[in-house]
C-alpha cells in the first residue's frame, strides 16, 4: 500500500488575467482561481499509482482559506485526503520559505501515515519557477527527480522507483530509492472527467487545516516574507518596442509588398522538392 | 552571514555530449559584463568526467578561472552528485553570484543547491544587471504568466543565484589561445552512497523538431480558431520550407505538441524570419521570439501587441492573406527550381 502525497497550489488563471496599466499589478478580479494546471497531472498520477498498487492519495497545499477549492478539485480527481496550511505568517513566501513550510507539514503528515512518494507539478503558472519541488526534496533529504514524464515502476518492498526524466532530446531512465520526490510534466497523463461519486464527495469535502502553531519545530524566521531571501524589487511593463511598419492599401497590394520584403531573403526559402 | 566575504561571478558550465552547451557560453558573456562592472573575476565551475580540457574553451569565452570537478562519479548528470560539488565549492570559495542556464539540468541543479545554500534563486531570468558598489544583482524576468516583468533582488544572502534563459544573452567573441587558471577540486562521493542511478539514456528515435535551430519559423496562435485552422500554418510552413512554431494557447488547446511552443514556458528562438500568425503577442510569447531577425505579424486585431514587436505587420484575416502568400511562394519557388534545373 502506497502513500503518495501530491503538493498542489491554487493559482490565478494567468492566461486570462488582465494587467492594471496604471499600477502594473494584476487585476485579481479578472483572474479566476484555479488548481495549477501542472498539479492536476501530479494528482492524477498519484491516483493512477493508487489504482495500480493500492494505497492512499493525500494532497497538501499552502494558501489562504479560499484555496480549499483547489483541494476539492483534487478530491474530484481522486485524492483521498487533503491538508492545507494557512496562516498569515506564511504570506509573502518565496520558493525557499514555501518549501520550508510545506516540509514542516509533510513531517506532520508522515507521522500520521509514513510517506512513500511525493509528487509535484513541474511548476506553477503564476510563479513559473519549478523550484519548490526540488526544495522540498532537499529539505527532506530525499532524491528529487524533475521533469518526469513516465512512472515505470514503484517497488515499495524493494524500496525503489523507476521513472523517465524528460531531456531536451529524449529521456533518461532513472532508478531511485524510496521515498523520493517527482515533479511531473503535463504529458505524463491525461486527466479524465471525474466520476460522479468523486464529485459528490468533493462538493462537501473539508480538508484538515493547520496554522503555524499546529506544526512542530517551526523556526518562524524561516517563514513567509521574513524567511524569503528574494524580494521583488520592482514590477514593470517592458517599454513598448518601436513597432513595425503596418502595411497599407488593398489586401493584394499588402501581400505584394510583403513578398517584396521576403524575397530579399530568397536564399532562405526552400525550393519545393528540397533542391535548395 | 557576512556578505562582504563573498566575491566574484561564477557561471555553471554545463556539458552535454562532450561539449559546453551554448547557454553556458552566453552566460560567460553576460557574467563577464557583470564582473567587469563590479571589478571582479569571472570564473566557471565545470563538473563532469573527462571535462577538464573544456576549461580552455571557457577561457576563450571570457572566464578568468575555472573550478574543475573531473571524476567518474560525475559521468552522467545527477542532482545529488552535481549539487554536492556546487555546494562544496561555493562554501569554500564564496562567490557573490552564480549563474546557471535555464535548461532542465541547470534548473534542477540550481533549485536543489539554493535550498542547501539557503539563498535566493531567480528563475528564467531574461535581463541581468549589477549595482557596481553593492554587488546587488538585479535579475529581471517575465512574471505572472508573462504579463509583466519583475526585478528580483536578494539583498541579505550570498551567493545570489539565477537561472538564465538560453538565447537571450550574448556570448563574447572567443579569443583563441586566451588563458586562465584551472583550479582542480576533489570531492569524495562513493557510488554506493548515491541514491539515484541512470539506467539508460534514450534519444528520440525520430529526430524531434528543434525549433530553436530553424532559420524560418511560421508560428500560429489562438487566432486560427481550431486545430483545422492551424492546418494553415502547416501548409504555409511546408510551402516555404519553414519550421512550425506555436503560441502557448495553441499548444494548450492541443492543436500541436509542446516542443513547438515559443515563449517563456516553451523555447526561445532566434530564426532569421519569424511569422506570427494569429498570435496576439503576450509578453510570455515575446520573450521567446523578440530577437528574431525579421518578424512578420499577421493579425485581425489592429491593437494586438504583436504589432509593436514586429518589423512588418498586416492587419487582416490570416485565412485570406496566408493562402495568397502560399500561392505567390509556390509560383516564385517553382520558377526558381526550373531556372536551377
From TrEMBL, chain A:
CDD domains: ETF_beta. Pfam families: ETF. Its cofactor is AMP. Residues 23-218 form the Electron transfer flavoprotein alpha/beta-subunit N-terminal domain. Gene3D superfamilies: HUPs. PROSITE patterns: ETF_BETA. Belongs to the ETF beta-subunit/FixA family. PANTHER family: ELECTRON TRANSFER FLAVOPROTEIN BETA-SUBUNIT, PROTEIN FIXA. This is Electron transfer flavoprotein small subunit. The lineage of its organism: Bacteria, Bacillati, Bacillota, Bacilli, Bacillales.
TrEMBL record, chain B:
Residues 9-198 form the Electron transfer flavoprotein alpha/beta-subunit N-terminal domain. InterPro entries: DHS-like_NAD/FAD-binding_dom, ETF_a/b_N, ETF_a/FixB, ETF_alpha_N, ETF_asu_C, Rossmann-like_a/b/a_fold. It holds the Pfam family ETF_alpha. Belongs to the ETF alpha-subunit/FixB family. This is Electron transfer flavoprotein alpha subunit. It comes from Ammoniphilus resinae.
